[in-house]
């Protein structure tokens, strides 16, 4: 640690320094670190590579939370760890995981039911579609009883901030989240701005955001690779300009738990005006440390965590909401003592029994399967195969389980529907599963349910999830619809498929051969819709939704469009795997067409700053 790091002059020494060196200026007021004082006086920024706070400091961080208007209106404990969910924004940056407006709305409703405190609904300036999705979520989910805060993301630019405000202002509790990069690497190569220019932009843009909205979150992009002293100065400027939450992003998943905890502690101890503000955490999982980093940050004074369901997100993803929440719940006594709360306190506002439903819904909507050994929500998370483990579980579940599957809503559902089940029972079951759908949507899904019930003796929740997910994905009136697919295959026949598609109201039929019936069907679809070689199939997965010979086959395809360079997902389920595969492929192609005709400009991390 350098000689200036963490060094704070006494009040007497600072007074002497002001008079002898700085002509009595206020650049070195009591409590201000010497390196910040020197930088303000000389304009020289000291570069360091480690956080300013000593890693060996272990004393508890005292945080005195001040209830916000949202806390008071919703009755939520101001001392809790706030859950900021960015599944609809950062989660959507996962390759292929683009969501339609209808899908975003359904997920937002489930996130509110889950009990998240803030929903980052999107990046309004990115496209007309994203703006409308954020606006709709603000008008509906943001105005319900016990509403979450509805947040939109913007760069530190007036057009972005203005567009963001136009989208979120309809919510009962809107928030503008604006950001600018602060690491030397980003400032020099991406922003092409000097530190002084970044400081000026921070003041100007946070002030502008605050003139529109009283709840403003400010993020210093790539904070964990930024010079800590400069970071303190940026955050101090943001607070002075009106920021109410400070976010500390580990943008590239670079930091470690001790480093991140030390950085958060340093911010808590060195940033001016931080006393009554919330420090938030945002981090990616490139080194598999995101959750551990967040828990360290919470121990060191952060009280908001920015997460996604299933940990989806760009590259290796974000910190997984379910892992953070259940770590705080299962180890409640440990973390309650760290946060200076009563041992029986609920450390978050999350309804744990909605975790599993939320995970399944996100997986279905995005087409991104959850790995079997995924913590908390994976298929094997509560499975025991070892004989020793099984014996212990039979004697006492606590021998090998630290939580009950039912505590996250897994295994709670016992109602099984069949062909004699009525519309009321069907709607009731969907509501229990988290799907709040309109009468029109219900009618479409009910028809699919009856068709499936004629083929299967029992229709399970997994079947229903696949049905409703398919119907939701068709709500935006696709350009291309599958009319019929017929295949011929077997030994020694050449696999052949005849496909008929409705393309903008005109039916077209094509036949093609392939390495198998599914490949032949895909070739037929592409022959109708796209020029040869413009689309590449990157991934094709088939899973059995339930057990048995009559199980639904759930198919996920991932395509790359060489025209736009974008990757998209498509998924569908059917008792006929060929039909499911073709439907999933057509769904993905519709996403390709929407991207090609969209006026969207992408997501903020990929923008070139102007």
Plain-language structure description:
The protein has helices spanning 11-20, 34-42, 69-74, 101-114, 128-139, 158-168, 184-191, 195-212, 228-241, 257-270, 290-299, 321-330, 332-338, 355-366, 387-395, 423-432, 439-455, 461-472, 517-529, 577-597, and strands at 82-85, 118-122, 149-155, 174-181, 216-221, 245-250, 278-283, 304-307, 480-488, 496-503, 506-513, 535-544, 553-561, 567-574. By secondary structure, the chain is of the alpha/beta class. It has four domains: 1-46, no CATH class; 79-365, Aldolase class I (TIM Barrel, Alpha-Beta Barrel); 423-472, no CATH class; 480-597, Double Stranded RNA Binding Domain, CATH 3.30.160. The chain has an eight-stranded parallel beta barrel with strand order 1-2-3-4-5-6-7-8, surrounded by seven helices. Strands 9-10-11 form a three-stranded antiparallel β-sheet. A hairpin with a 5-residue loop joins β13 and β14. It starts with 10 loop residues before the first helix and ends in a 13-residue tail after the last helix. The relative contact order is 0.09.
Q: What's the number of structural domains?
A: 4
* Strand order in the sheet with the most strands: 1-2-3-4-5-6-7-8
- Give the C-level CATH assignment of the largest domain: Alpha Beta
Residues in helices, as a percent range: 25-40%
As a percent range, the share of strand residues is 15-25%
Shape: globular
Topology:
Elements: H1 11-20, H2 34-42, H3 69-74, E1 82-85, H4 101-114, E2 118-122, H5 128-139, E3 149-155, H6 158-168, E4 174-181, H7 184-191, H8 195-212, E5 216-221, H9 228-241, E6 245-250, H10 257-270, E7 278-283, H11 290-299, E8 304-307, H12 321-330, H13 332-338, H14 355-366, H15 387-395, H16 423-432, H17 439-455, H18 461-472, E9 480-488, E10 496-503, E11 506-513, H19 517-529, E12 535-544, E13 553-561, E14 567-574, H20 577-597
Parallel strand pairs: 1-2, 1-8, 2-3, 3-4, 4-5, 5-6, 6-7, 7-8
Antiparallel strand pairs: 9-10, 10-11, 12-13, 13-14
Helix pairs in contact: 4-5, 4-14, 5-6, 6-8, 8-9, 9-10, 10-11, 12-13, 14-18, 17-18, 19-20
